Amino acid sequence: MTLAPGSRLGAYDVLALIGVGGMGEVYRAKDSKLHREVALKVLPDLWANDPDRLARFQREAEVLASLNHPHIAAIYGLEEAAGMRALVLELVEGLTLADRIRQGPIPVDEALPIARQIAEALEAAHELGVVHRDLKPANVKLRHDGSVKVLDFGLAKAMAGEPPADLSQSPTIMTPATMTSAGVILGTAAYMAPEQAKGRPADARSDIWAFGVILYEMLTGKSAFAGETMVEILGGVLKSDPDWTALPATTPSTLRSLLRRCLQRDRARRLRDIADARFQMEEALSEPTGPAAAAAPARTPRERPLWMAGILLGAIAASLVTFVFVRGVPADAPQMRLQIVTPPATDLASFAISPDGRHVVFQATVEGKSQLWLRPLGSETAEPLAGTENGSLPFWSPDGQSIGFFAGRQLKRSDITGGLVRTLASSPNDRGGTWNEEGVILFAPSSTGPLYRVPAGGGSAVEVTRVDPPRQTGHRFPRFLPDGRHFLFFALGTPESQGVYLGSLDSMDARRLFDADGAAVFAPPDQVLFPRQGALWAQRLDPSTLEPVGDSLPMAKSVAVDPNLFANVALSASAAGPVAYRASRVQGQLTWFDRSGRQIGTVGGRDMDQPADIRLAPDGRSAAFRRMVGGNTDVWLMDIARGILRRFTADAARDYETTWSPDGTRIAFSSDRNGVLDLYEKAIDGAGAESLLLQSPEHKNIYDWSLDGHFILYGTQNSKTGEDLWALPLDGDRKPLAVAQTPFQEVNGRFSPDSRWIAYELNESGRNEIYVQPFPGPGAKSQISTSGGTLPQWRRDGREIFYLGPDDRLMAVPVMLPVSGSVVEAGTPVALFATRPGSEFEASPDGQRFLINTLPEGAATPPITLILNWQPKP
Q: What's the burial of 700, exposed, middle or buried (CB within 10 Å: 0-12/13-18/19+)?
C-alpha cells in the first residue's frame, strides 16, 4: 500500500515518495531514533504477500549487508511493521547518472572518474560473488562532492548458480510463449547483455557489458542500442554494434579499445574482470587527447570483412524491425511477452496500445486522482495526460497523435502534442469508441442503443447501426478493421443473438460472426481476438470475405472482463502487431475490519474470484454476492460463521446485483435472461421457482429492499437521461415510481432504516457526491459528502451514513433525520480508514465492523502483458 506523507512505518516517519519502480517504492523518511533521513524501499503492492518476492526482498537485504563499500549505497536494516516490509537504506542525494546524461555528453575527463568509481563498486560486488544484473544510469547516483553510489541490487544474485526466477516486476521482463523460468529475461532492455536477452544466466561479464553501455552513453550522450520498442532495442543488442563514430574525437585509443572489449556479444571474448577496466581507465587518464591520439588503428585485410559483416548485420536487424512493425511478423519469429506494471487502476480494461505499437495509454489512480497516463514502451516511466481526469476507455487516432476517451458523460479527445482536450459529443453511458483514418469516430453513448458516428473534430452524432429488439438491447465497443469502413462490435441480447458482429459505415445492417463473452479486437493480419470462458482466444477472419475461418485457438489462459461493464475486455491490439491484455484479478478474501481499519477476521477461504456486490443478510449471518466462475456470473451465498460457500443461481445468463428481503427469506437480483437486465426474486431455501419481478426494455440494476418490505429500489439506464433511480412497489399494481430522474447520473441508492429517505450518488457537480432526499417525496435533496463519494450505506439506527471517498477512504457522516419535515441535518464527514482502489464494503448493522472484498497486496491491478510476434498455432 502506498505510504502517505506524515504516516509512520515502525520508527520511521514518511516524508515523501521519491520514486516508484518495478522492484519497489522508495520513500524519504526520518529515523525518529537516530534523527537522520533515510530511504525506505517497500515492496510493490503486487508482490507484498508473495512468498517468492518476500524471499527475494530478504535476499536483497542480505546482499546489501554483505557489500560494505564507499561506492555502494549502504543498508541500515530491514523494518517490519503494520504488515509491511521495508529496506532501510542510505539516502543518497544528487542527480542520477541518467539525469546527467540527459543534459548531454560528458567530457572524457569528467566521465572517467565516474566510470572508475562504478567499476570499483562492481569489483567489490564481484569479489563477493554478487552480480548486479540491472546496472544502468538510473541506478547510479552522483553526489554533490563528486563521489558515486551504485544503487538497487534488487536483481542481484550470487554467482553460485541460483536458478533463474520469473521476476515480472523487473523494469523489463520478456518471456517466450511457454512462460517457463528457463527463458526469462531479466534486466532493463537497453543495458541487457546478449546472454540476458536470450534468457540465459547472467554472470560478472553481464555487468561488464552494462558497464560498457553506460560508458558509451556518458561519452556520446546517446543510447548504444536505441529504439522506441522492445523489439528494436533487443534487436540492436543481439545483432548490431553501437555507432562507434559517435564517440568524441578526443576519446583516447585505450578507452575505445576498452569499450569494444566490454561490448563483445560472445562473452568468451568479452573483458573478463571489471578490475581490468579500472586499470585501462587509469591508463586512459594519462593518455594525451586529441584527434591524432584518438585515431582508430587501420583495419587489416583480415579485419575488414568482419567490419563489413557488422554493418550488414546491423542493416539486416533494421530491416527485420521494419518488417515486424510495418509489414507483419515472420512466421518463425520467436514470441516474446513483456509485462508493464502500472499504478492501481479501478478499471482494468481502460488501456490501449498505439497503432505503431510504441506507446500505451492506461487509466490509473495516483494519490486519489484517477486519470489517463501515457507510457512509451521504450521507457520505464509514464506521464499523466492533463485534462483526462476520471477518463476511461481510451482509444487512439490512426496517426497516434491523439487519444479519444470518455469522461463526465462526454466523448472527448486529447491531442498529445500541446495537450489540447476537446469535447466531441454527449455520452451518458460510455461503451467504447474507435477512430479511422478518414477522421470518423464510432462510439456507443448508451448501454441500450445503437452505435453512432461523429467527426473527430466534433459535430452531430449520427446512428450507424440498428438495434433489433427484443433479440438485441444494445451495441457497444466498436473496433475499426484496417479498411476503415468495416468494424467489429458487440451486441448485447438474448443468448442466440448476443456476440461479435461485423458492421459497415455503408449500411446499417450487420451480421453476427460468433458468440463471445466480451468485445473483440482485430490483430493484423487476419486475427480477431476475444474472451470466452475467462480465456483469450483468436479466430481467423478471411480478408476477402470477412468470414470466420477454421476453429478458434487459445491465446492466453486468463483475460479480464469487466463484470460491471458487460463485454468490456482488457484487450488491445496495434496495427504494427503487438497485442496487449490484462489477466483477471487474482482470487480474493472477504475480510472484516473495525472502524480503525484493523483486520479482525476473515470469511471463508481465499478461493473466490472477484466477489462483488456484497450484501449482508439482515441478521448479519450470511452474505450474498456475485461471482464469476468459468466465464459465467451468478449469485453466491456465504455462511459467515462457518465459511461455507454455495451457489444461489445457476442460469447461463448473467445474474448480478442482489438485495435481501427484510425477513432474510428471499433475495432479489438482476439478470439478463431475456437479453436485458430485469428484476427477479428467489427464496433462500430454494423452494419454488424464481419469480420475475419487473421486465422492461431498459437495463435495471437492483439496489435495495426497504425494511418495511413495500419497495425495491433500482436504477435504469437509457440514452436520454442516463442512469436514474426508480422504486418498484411490491403491493398493488406494481407500477414503478420515478425517484430521481435528471440529465445527470443517479446511482447506488439505499433506503434509510425507516424507509422514509434515500441516500444515493449524483454527479450533478461534476463529480459523484452523496445526497439524501425524502422518499417517496416531495422534498429537496441534501448533500451529505463534501469532497466526493460513492457507495452510500446507512447504519441500522439511521444515525450515520458510510461511503467511500475519492481517495478510497471509508468515510462516516453523522446524520439526524427529522421526525417531520424534509431537511436532513448532517455532520462533518470523518475518515475511518483507507481501502484499496476498487474495494467494496458492507457495514454491519451497528456500524462497528465492515466486510470488504480484500485482495492480496496490489492484486487489484494485474500488469499489462504485451505480446510481440504472436501468431496462432493449431
A: buried
| CATH fold label, 590-854 | Neuraminidase (2.120.10)
Given a cut of 60, is residue 178 above it in pLDDT? no
Instruction: Cite the DSSP H helix spans in 531-572.
Output: none
CB atoms within 10 A of CB 740: 22
For residue 324, the 8-state DSSP code is I
Separation CA 376–CA 624 (nearest Å): 43
Q: What's the grid cell of residue 175? A: 518471456
The residue assigned the cell 530478504 is: 58
Q: CATH topology of 96-287+307-327 equal to that of 590-854?
A: no
Q: Where are the domains of the chain?
A: 8-90, 96-287+307-327, 342-585, 590-854
Cell of 704: 435495495
Q: Mind listing the pLDDT tens digit for each residue in 487-546?
A: 999 998 877 888 999 999 999 999 999 999 889 999 998 999 999 877 899 999 998 999
Distance CA 851, CA 590 (A): 6
Output the average pLDDT for the chain.
82
What does the H/E/C string look like for 402-433?
Answer: EEEEEECCEEEEEECCCCCEEEEEECCCCCCE
DSSP letter at 561 equals: B
Are residues 353 and 360 in contact, defined by beta-carbon separation less than 8 angstroms? yes
- Active-site residue identified among 31, 134, 207, 724: 134
Helix or strand holding residue 101 (H, E)? helix 97-102
Residues 110 and 852: their CA atoms lie apart, in Å, by: 56
Pairing of strands 410-415, 402-407: antiparallel
- Whether the bond into 729 is cis, omega within 30 of 0: no
What's the rounded Cα separation, in Å, for the pair 240 and 171? 23
Please state, as a whole number, how many other Cβ atoms lie within 10 Å of the Cβ of residue 284.
Answer: 21
Peptide bond into 470 cis (omega under 30): yes
CB 707 within 8 A of CB 795: no
Which of 3.10.20.590, 3.20.20.150, 1.10.510.10, 1.10.287.180 is the CATH number of 96-287+307-327?
1.10.510.10
- Torsion (CA) 713, 647, 844, 790 in degrees, nearest 10: -50
* Distance from the Cα of residue 696 to its chain's centroid: 36
Q: What is the pTM of this model?
A: 0.58
For domain 342-585, give the fold: Neuraminidase (2.120.10)
CA-to-CA distance for 727 and 494, rounded, in angstroms? 26
**Third-level CATH fold of 8-90:** Phosphorylase Kinase; domain 1 (3.30.200)
CA distance 187 to 528: 33
User: What's the pLDDT tens digit per position in 74-86?
Assistant: 888 888 876 778 8
Annotated active-site residue 562? The verdict is: no
Q: Give the pLDDT mean for 845-873.
A: 76
Question: Higher model confidence: residue 644 or residue 106?
Answer: 106
Residues 118, 119, 120, 125, Cα dihedral to 10°: 90
User: pLDDT at position 755, please?
Assistant: 94
559-569: b or e for each residue (b if 16 or more CB lie within 10 Å)?
A: bbbbbebbbbb
Three-class DSSP category at 626: strand
Instruction: Give the tens place of pLDDT for each residue, 315-362.
Output: 323 333 333 333 344 445 566 777 787 877 778 899 999 999 889 999
Q: Is the dihedral of CA 39, 45, 50, 56 positive or negative?
A: negative
Decide: 391 and 363 in contact? Cβ < 8 Å.
yes
Tally the C-alpha atoms within 13 A of residue 126's C-alpha that lie toward its C-beta: 19
Q: Which amino acid is at 744?
A: F
